[in-house]
Amino acid sequence: MRSAGQAHDAASLWDIATPSRRGRLPGVSMAGFRARTTDPVDLGVVPYPAVTVAVDLGDAPLAVDDVSGRRQNGSVVVGLASVGVRGRGRDVECLQVRLSPPVAHAVLGAGAELGASVVSLDDLWGRDAARTQEQLRAARSWEERFAIAEAALVRRYEAGRAVEPEVAFVWGQMVTNLGGVRVERLAAEIGWSRKRLWSRFRAQIGLPPKRAAQLVRFDHAAHRLAAGHSAAQVAAETGYVDQSHLHRDVVTFAGVTPTAVGIAPWLAVDDVAWASPAYLSRYLSKS
Fold it and tell me: How far are the Cα atoms of 122, 157, 230, 231, 263 from residue 244, in angstroms, in the given order?
């Protein structure tokens, strides 16, 4: 179980800024991070049911490694269920944007290729990435940075290709039910075959439907573990058959045990960086 002291120690490493108003795009959340220490930062990323964009604003390049050991320097996009991702750097300063998968499909122009990968933002946005980063670096406040980022996201969302309504509906049902859904029932509800739903969902969201639902459930469990609840209690409350089932899912998604997830520094700042009156609102997409 994580102690309050451990959470405080992890959170105290960062100055965190959040927008003062709700953004124009549902399914998008942002936070600004600046390290309070000049010591090197080495942070493991816990998988999350959103596509994460990290815009590097520091003087020294941010290095992000994936499970294969491949490294991306600078601004990156971390796909759904990317396991073994670590961020490393010194004097880290970055803007982090979380995009629900339906929004990410339009904003980033990517789906299946972002399922479990880390790619350079430059590779997805081209010159627009460089222009946006220049504007963000020149901004005088985090509020100005949030406004610049939002404008870029809205512009690309409106020019992008939306996911099919049926796919957006299925994702929304997974989120609303914290992953506790049957894919067959959802396919029947939208009038699609299971095979068609699997194919279209994976192409547009980045994961097969069953794994996407498992990721949503894992995220709910991970936050319960980070709040200090025992693995047995979390397993019982989040729809797992038993504690062993929870353990297997946590190892599959995070590569570590439930105990390690419970003290993960990546989750220790969530109450500040991603605080929301409705836990699910940050995942839901515009329909």
Answer: 41, 41, 13, 9, 19
Do 55 and 121 contact (CB within 8 A), yes or no? yes
CA–CA distances in Å: residue 189 to residues 41, 192, 277: 47, 8, 30
Are the C-beta atoms of 251 and 265 separated by less than 8 Å?
no
Model confidence pLDDT, tens digit, residues 240-251: 999 999 999 999
Q: What is the pLDDT of residue 167?
A: 97
- Which two three-digit tokens encode residue 25? 């795009």
User: Which residue is listed with tokens 């936050």?
Assistant: 223
> How far is it, in rounded angstroms, from Cα 17 to Cα 132?
19
Residues 42 and 55 sit within 8 Å (Cβ to Cβ): no
Q: How many angstroms from the chain centroid is the CA of residue 28?
A: 10
| Amino acid in position 285 | S
DSSP, collapsed to helix, strand or coil, labels residue 8 as helix
What is the gyration radius of the CA atoms in the chain, in angstroms?
18
Q: Which of 144, 165, 80, 87 is nearest to 116 (CA)?
A: 80
Q: Please, are residues 245 and 204 in contact by the beta-carbon 8 Å criterion?
A: no
Q: Is 117 helix (H, G, I), strand (E, B) or coil?
A: coil
167, 175, 179 from 170: Cα distances, Å: 5, 9, 11
pTM: 0.89
In sequence order, which residues have a C-beta less than 8 Å from that of residue 28 and are 6 or more positions away? 97, 98, 99, 100, 103, 150, 153
Question: What's the gap between Cα 201 and its chain centre?
Answer: 18
Element (H, E) at 56: strand 51-56
* pLDDT tens digits for range 100-149: 999 999 998 765 456 668 899 998 899 999 999 999 999 999 999 999 99
The length of the chain is: 287
